[in-house]
């Protein structure tokens, strides 16, 4: 049961016509944001008073100091330049699409500049970041990979400085299917870099399986790690399938992604994978995360 189901009528499903019918105006969207933002009641950011008047646009005006706060302020919708309804449609498309969307596609589809589309999409990807509150348990496979194409006559780890290095972990179901996945950029293949995916996403109780790479040995002091031969990837079939998918997805959709933003693109890919069983509430889940995250100013993004 969604935590807002008793207080608000959350949008469920992936039907675009139903979505368009539910959110006909900016005001419809602002009400939805306000219901999430003040689900536990209003508290003035200036004087901390807890009572307010509700305006027509669903902003709140404090009864004591008269400070007015909009439904979008201090969220990732803060000062959105192209209207909240259009922003909702972009969030809906990014959360429910099975393919990745480029900024040029969103620019044409929603009538905004490519730079504006790219900036807002980066904010959405920021919200797609895992909270880290539910580490993976059970059987977890871990491996590293590089982004940037293959080198001739070279198999396995690449030490080419131009290539982006990354690590991924998947949690498997009893029948070997992918239950959850996380990926993140790493500086190198040393234990000090590899450890972060363990700390952020893997429970100490998990049964972790890696290949024979020596970088995992120091981490095995804190985690239950079994190291086996990769056998050309045959012993890590599901993991290597996911690595192939994320690499292909980035390569076919983006001509170039900076090191600065690569984790945000991983966020997007993993967000959809990890919610494939809860697609009905994926839009509400993402909107909620965008409301709960503080606004990020443009200077904190490199727009690619």
Structural notes for this entry:
This protein has 304 residues and is an alpha/beta fold. Helices cover 35% and strands 14% of the residues. The protein contains nine helices and eight strands. The protein has helices spanning 16-22, 26-37, 84-96, 103-110, 114-127, 191-201, 237-253, 262-274, 282-292, and strands spanning 52-54, 60-62, 68-69, 139-147, 164-172, 178-186, 207-210, 225-227. Strands 6-5-4-7-8 form a five-stranded mixed β-sheet, sandwiched between helices. Strands 1-2-3 form a three-stranded antiparallel β-sheet, with no helix packed on it. Strand 5 (164-172) and strand 6 form a beta hairpin. Helix 2 (26-37) packs across helix 3 (84-96). The longest helix has 17 residues, at 237-253. The two termini are 37 Å apart.
What about the largest sheet?
A: 5 strands, mixed
- Coarse shape: elongated
How far apart lie the N and C ends? 37 Å
The secondary structure category is alpha/beta
Write the layout of secondary structure elements.
Elements: H1 16-22, H2 26-37, E1 52-54, E2 60-62, E3 68-69, H3 84-96, H4 103-110, H5 114-127, E4 139-147, E5 164-172, E6 178-186, H6 191-201, E7 207-210, E8 225-227, H7 237-253, H8 262-274, H9 282-292
Parallel strand pairs: 4-7, 7-8
Antiparallel strand pairs: 1-2, 2-3, 4-5, 5-6
Helix pairs in contact: 2-3, 3-9, 4-5, 5-8, 5-9
